[in-house]
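Can't paste images in this forum, so I'm doing it all in text. The chain is below; anyone willing to post the predicted structure tokens underneath?
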Amino acid sequence: MIDALFSKLLLITVMTIFLWFSWPYIGPHKPELGPLRQELAEKMVVEIAEDLQANKGAVVSAVLVHFENDPTDYISETLSLVLEQRGTFDLLGPPLPYRLRKVLNMRQPAHNAPVTAAETANIAGLDAAIIGRVTSFESYAGGTKAEIEYTLVSATGEILYTASLKREISSAWIAPALPDSATVFWQSSYLQNGLVWLMIMLVLPIVTITFIRIAARKNSNASNAFVLAVYTLLSTIAAYIIIGTGLSGLWLLGMLLATASVSLLYNIKILSFAIKLEEE
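Text version of the structure:
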């Protein structure tokens, strides 16, 4: 009974570890800002922070609500960091749901309604809330332009200050430095993904060796075959998720056969080691 329960717990552990390592590949992906858009965002955030500092009045504590139309989270999080570093407000830290969504790389919800923001500040015992919206943020042939609206709302719902900032930055073409062949090789996505898969394949049976020993203790060929099948299948699925992106046809088939063979041989070694431990 205890062994069966322990086996189930170990299986849950195996699946949890597998999901944790594979989540960056199977989970949601947020867009990223290019260098030029990032530079413009940083300049605008500094201006917004300076403007809020000059027009905050008697506000001491505040909560920064995630800005609308900020799918990368870059503007909201950078503004929070700048305000905190400058000591402009005693900012409320992000709540647990926000942190969980950030870890899982999920998009953050935005509440641009002053009433909702005021309720959030009131419940937290703060003076005000900062809300905003990225009205536009687009690139064109000659550069990038953006417009950001932002508002300071008191905990009672009064609009203390509101403004809109428009900025534009032109792009200057700079010849990129060509990396050497070694850098290209080590930065190859297939190589990096292959190393991630190899780490998962090597570590997974080791951290769950107790489960393998329980199966080896039964001294059953069927049990041993089941363990080999489970671990080899997990490794092959991981290889398909991590390395298989962009591959097709014979390349994909060859990659799956190679990773399955390597994984099977390694798992046989681990299982043989577990059997020897049980025979001692």
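Residues 249-279 form the longest helix (31 residues). The chain has two domains: 2-28+180-279, 35-170.
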